[in-house]
Amino acid sequence: MSINEKFQELGVVPVVVIEDVKDALPLAKALVEGGLPCAEVTFRTEAAAKAIRQMTEAYPEMLVGAGTVLTTAQVNEAVEAGAKFIVSPGFDPEIVDYCLAREIPVLPGCATPSEVAQAVKRGMEVVKFFPAEQVGGLPMIKAMAAPYHQLRFMPTGGINPENLKDYLAFDKILCCGGSWMVKGNLLKEGKFDEVCKLTKEAKEIADAVKK
After folding, report:
1. 5 catalytic per annotation
2. Is the pLDDT reported for residue 211 higher than 80?
3. pTM to 2 decimal places
């Protein structure tokens, strides 16, 4: 199964900020047991690389990637830690070309037709649409998907249980990134049972759309 097929099967990619590496393994356990063995670990914290390493070693079945990647040095650090995919908030040609040359799956953030055109020019099949709700949401994706019909999107930013179903129902959306099931306060307070519960609910919504 290709990485894009895995994304489609999951439907939702939890987007996580891990401040303390001790939270990595209980978080991974909660996501796996909740039915979403996947995480986009944002590279905003010093714990990110260690967290990715621990999660991938303890749960090799998990699809763990690095988000908020801003430099090629971070790409290297993330991949060395075990990241299976790279996500950037915007379309950075240097990062995209670096990843493509090394066959590292990359999902650059695209919010405009010009950015999408750069992805299409490079033969890309999937891009992140960010920040989704703030830049037009589903109507904007539908408008851009018309001329760029070969591309699929992973909207992230403002996705929640209320709008998830509408996004996933559009066939040009591969999956959605979301953080509501892994909010920082849940991790800080050790509420991993709640993380697992919210993850199960998210997976149920995604599965219901596919039926």
Report:
1. no
2. no
3. 0.97
